[in-house]
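Entry for the shared binder. Reason: the reviewer on the internal report wants the predicted structure included alongside the sequence.
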Amino acid sequence: MEFFLLLLIVIIVYIIATGYKYDFEKKVLVQTGALTIENLEDNTTVLFNNEKYKDERNHSFKQLDQKNYTFKITKDSRKDYTTSVDIKQGEVIYISPILIPNHIKINSIRENISNISTSERFMFYTVKEDNKIFIERLTLNKSLFNVDSTIVGVNITGVLDFSKSIKITHNDNGNSVLISDDKKTLLIDFNKSIFSDISSLIPSGAITSYELRDNYLIIRYEQLLYSFNISDIQKVQKNLVFTGSIKSYSIGENNNIYIIYAENDKIYIETFSIDGVSQNKTEIVDSPDEFAKNNISMSYFYQNIYIINNDIIYKLNKNKIIEFEKNISSIKIQDRNTAYLIGKNKISLLSKDKYFTIGLKYSPIDMQVFPDLFTFFYSDSEYKIHLADFGGQDNIVTEDASTSFLMTQNGSDSYIYFGSKSEIKYIKFGND
């Protein structure tokens, strides 16, 4: 008897632990969902299901029925955070709310700058001081930001025509930077604080796109795609990767280049090594007619290729095209396991085992994601910066930006950095 009682207890504990409970009305076991609110600031209060929870950094609500729940988070000197979430069977939703201060303080850290370019961890810009022109790199570390130790500059006085349009791009680690006007192109090594004029290596004609990846520079000129080995910027090696009717390309794992192109009224995708050696060629069947007519964009994510054409994103399944989602303008690869689909008044989270979509007040043009992957800042077409999450929060935090922005964290404190006309500014969110 004791054995069977013990066995029953084990079974009940297992059922509860795996997210099931007994529905007495339907007389069946039903799977439940859960909500976890984490990384809260000190001295916050959570109101959920008419119960108050105080002075805890994390709250987990388990065995929730499948329905909509509303919760509220409050703290003195902060705006109330109120939102609702749809709980589904077998799903755990994680929310890491950032509470917006009642009065936001904007700090200026660099003045007299221009030509700002931003990415995940870096901000590059040009600045004129004492009749000299420098390109500077501002690095955002995961530790507390210290401006004096994170700005590095390289003197490029008298080389480029700054009355013209200036383009800046860089590789993932921020050490190699490409800066160009309409005639000259410079390659800069920030580790050595030197630059090399590689204009003579660049074919004449308009550059369609270019990007830096590790020790390689990839440049597309309409129907030509080149790769440049820039491990030594004084001895740059040039390779012709592809020539043809290029529709789009993307760089995937192991720096392989995936190119979609049209040939004899057919659409192909071909894989090349980054130095231009063909590895695989496949015809795409059942592709929309627009693929052959329009320029399309392509991204490689989690061993899959996604193609965007006319605000529709498609997934390439073997050699067939499958429509994935409508009203999508771009895809942001966060890491090898997580991506975000950016569309008209919405953002979707895409990963190996999750897919969420959240409606927004504005259409994003850029976003930066918190480590929880559910909370993010985004900027709209007017560069207003919003704080939003997949719980439904969407609040403007500043209208002072004139460029894209960067975000970093130090513990529970969050910082966003942005260009504002001729200055770099930042806002701190977190504990007082």
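Summary line for the report: The longest strand covers residues 122-129.
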